[in-house]
## 1
Amino acid sequence: MSQSSLTQSHITLRYFAWMREHVGTDCEDILLPDDTRTIADLLPHLRARSAGHALALSNMRAVRVAVNRTYGDLDTPVSAGDEVAFFPPVTGG
Amino acid sequence: MAVRVQTDDFDVGAESRALQADTVGGIALFVGTVRGLSSDNGVTAMTLEHYPSMTEAELERIEAEARARWPLEDVTIIHRVGRLLAGDQIVLVATASAHRQAAFDAAQFIMDFLKPDAPFWKAEERDGKTSWVDARDSDSAARDKWTK
């Protein structure tokens, strides 16, 4: 989906490696839920999207999060237009 | 400053020559490669995935931190993505400085931060099966020793 098709109330979600496989997509746009201020607030909404989402996000100790391509954590604020990425601990080099 | 994420292989000699300059007295080069079948893990190939744009931003941040710590004349970081075979080159870190110690230390620093921070993921092929590589605690420990 192109950036221009996003409205101001959406966020973009991205998934990598085995999280992408569990969720079944590498990218999706969702409406930012009204009660969502942080990554922690967002998680219940994401887990409710599918069994794959629930599995991928079941153990947040095994997940890293980035907001707008910068590392964050459960307390990182989320606002409309943000790109939120979830991925396993990295294994490059 | 040069950070590159690419599918193509790289020429270590050419990258080293590109860092030579009148002010440079030493160039340290680290090349990471795919361990193969004859090692203990029996890997025939691996596929590297990454997070475009965040990857480059993280590598540039790590390079900037290295330049803030050591007097570096130049730095090159190249990381390959896509499918690689046993024996292939994966990563190059090259640091150029007036004296060797800064070049050696900065190259190690960059690798120690790249491993746990740059958003790359490896899927290994072994006996026809593909599995995601787990991160190692020792990689985070290698990074964290620099901040103690």
## 2
Amino acid sequence: MPDVDDGSIADDHNLLRRVRPDQIVDDANLGIRRPSSAVFKDPELSADSENILLQSGSDWRFPLQGHAGYSLARFRAGTARQLGLPVIHKPLQDNGAHVEVHGRKAQGIANTLVTASWWAHLEPKK
Amino acid sequence: MPELAMSLDESVGATSQRVSNFPNFMRAFDAEPERTWQLEVQNHLLKYVKLQRGWDTYNAQPIGWDTGFFALSILNDFMRPRTPIPQVVPSAAGGVQLEWHQKGVDLELHITGPYQCELWFKDHQTPNQPPISLELTDDYSALRRPFDLLTSR
């Protein structure tokens, strides 16, 4: 399947991205723990569509299965598109909700994704 | 913001005053390198350079030794005894990010190899100024101001 944003992932789809514990930063300016912008730097950023998970009877817990200790950030597909990033549905054999957000994410873009994201699940700090 | 300009000027003035009153003390205090950050940053980097492809459970690239060494060399050039220690984060692009989010400063250095660095800098005390986002290759002078703010505030 060619890597084309065919619009099958609607703008209002929530995308879920696992976050390693060492990619969560303490932001003393905002008084919060949040994902580092380094989380979003992958030029082929994998995520799962929460809407597709819900349609298939699953939910946000699915991406965390087998990944103890990970947190889960959520952002909208439309946010990525507004930044000029194609959102491509790339189902995997064991994960029909898999999506990739393509394109180079300069620091400004990665930080916009951070600002627009919110936690689906945040592991307590150890 | 006139109040801010005034307070910064006063702050600089106060520092100059301290230096002139206690020149030997200030010279020694500023000259003695603080080694804590080096140990802490090195420990993180040593962990990260051992990460295998896909370390983020997706398709993250491994992080090279040369990237780690370059991150240390940047810090060696700009860290001062009272500069806060950065948070060191592995990057999904295969690199490391040094970041500070404190004292009203957001500073991020995303490093993917020697002389391959992206700067992100935002000063919350000057909200009307847009964040600075730059690619740095051989000129790192743009780091001076954010490091000065982190050290002096």
